Every structure is written in structure tokens, then in C-alpha cells.
């Protein structure tokens, strides 16, 4: 009997980074559980990506997380890998933003990571292996003007991931935070930054490839902080 494929769970699976991560994991031999709110888009990706399943889930809704994980475990098995790619973002002056916007972004970026890690880490600890990787950006490192509704939640996410890493690393579970310091190459970003050449953008497939590399790291040389940027990015 064939051994079942290891299971990876990816949140925030949209047309860009999330889909690229799902494709890379599937090509590397994982069965991929794809979570997002857009069921139609997820279903199309599930038809395209082998050994993948679509799960419509709002990661700010804890009962939805629990119901989704129960279904996922019954259909696919226990996830060995969690990639938290879902992101809540907003731009605006701190005097003008609605407080609810920042609260919502905390739910997506930080609290969802906590809820998922709490539910998935125990099985990883018991197995003595596993991985939790979160995709972030430079808002996790600095608070710039117009980022008040977003950056605090990404900074909290990074610190939470570091706290989780310090707990789980000695137990054999690799936790990493990937800072994406770039504009991701998507249809809407190409339109917004019209006139920029290819070197300005970071490719979703390249992000996915680096996440794959982190997953494959030897235990003697694990990364936590990983930063990605195009060669021409000013930083």
C-alpha cells in the first residue's frame, strides 16, 4: 500500500504567493490543504494543483478554524507543515483610520497564527518534526507613515512567531518568518506600478522556492529570520 503524502496547510491562497506556495509544495510531494475565503478561486486551484483540496475558511473566525481543521484531518490527515500566508492590510494616517481596521488586521495576521499554531503544534511536537512558516513584510520591522493600520499587526506577528520558534525549535519543529521586502508581481500591482520593469517586482514562484528551501534546511542550520528582496530594491 502506498504511504500517504505528508500534509501541508497553506492559508491565504490567492492568485499570487499562496497559489505559488501550494504549487511548490505539491510538486515537492505534499498533499496541500488550501485555505481562503474565496471558494470559487480555491476550487479552480484545486482542479489545477495535484493532491490539493480547497477549504473555504475565514481565519479570523475561530469556530470556522476548528470546523475546517476537523474536516481537513478527516479527509487528509494531520498537517506536518503550516504556512500562514493570509494577510490583512490597510493604509492610512493614524488620525484617520478606523480602529476596527487595525483590530481586523490583528485577527488575520497575529491571532490566526496563534490559533492555528495552538491547534497544529501538539501533533508536530509529538512527532518530533514539522514546520510553521509565516510570510511577512517590512511592516513587521518598522512603522512608516500611512502604515498605522497594518504595521503594528505585522510586528506582533513576527514577535509571536519568534516566541513560538523559541518554544518549538528544541522540540524538533522548525519555525521561520519570511520578510518579503518587495512589491509582489501580480496583475493589480503591475497596473498600479505601470512603467516599472521586471526587476522591480518579486515573483511569487521565487518566494515559494525560498519557502521550500527553508523547509528543506538541515536541523543543524535552521533559519528563523529570512529576508527576500529584488536585487535592485533600496533598503
The parts where pLDDT drops under 50 for at least 5 residues are none
Distance between the termini: 52 Å
Structurally, the number of domains stands at 1
Helix content: 40-55%
Q: Average pLDDT across residues?
A: 94
In CATH, the homologous superfamily goes by the name NAD(P)-binding Rossmann-like Domain
Number of strands: 9
Describe the 3D structure.
- This protein has 235 residues and is α/β, with parallel strands linked by helices.
- The protein has a single domain (7-228), classed as NAD(P)-binding Rossmann-like Domain (Rossmann fold, 3-Layer(aba) Sandwich).
- It is 43% helix and 18% strand.
- It has seven helices and nine strands, in the order E-H-E-H-E-H-E-H-E-H-E-E-H-E-H-E.
- It has helices spanning 17-27, 39-48, 62-75, 99-127, 151-168, 187-192, 204-215; strands at residues 7-10, 31-36, 52-56, 79-84, 131-137, 174-180, 183-184, 201-202, 225-228.
- The strands form two sheets. Strands 3-2-1-4-5-6-9 form a seven-stranded parallel β-sheet, with helices on both faces. A two-stranded parallel ribbon has the order 7-8.
- Strand 4 (79-84), helix 4 (99-127) and strand 5 (131-137) form a beta-alpha-beta unit.
- Helix 1 (17-27) crosses helix 7 (204-215) and helix 4 (99-127) packs parallel to helix 5 (151-168).
- The protein is globular, with a radius of gyration of 17 Å.
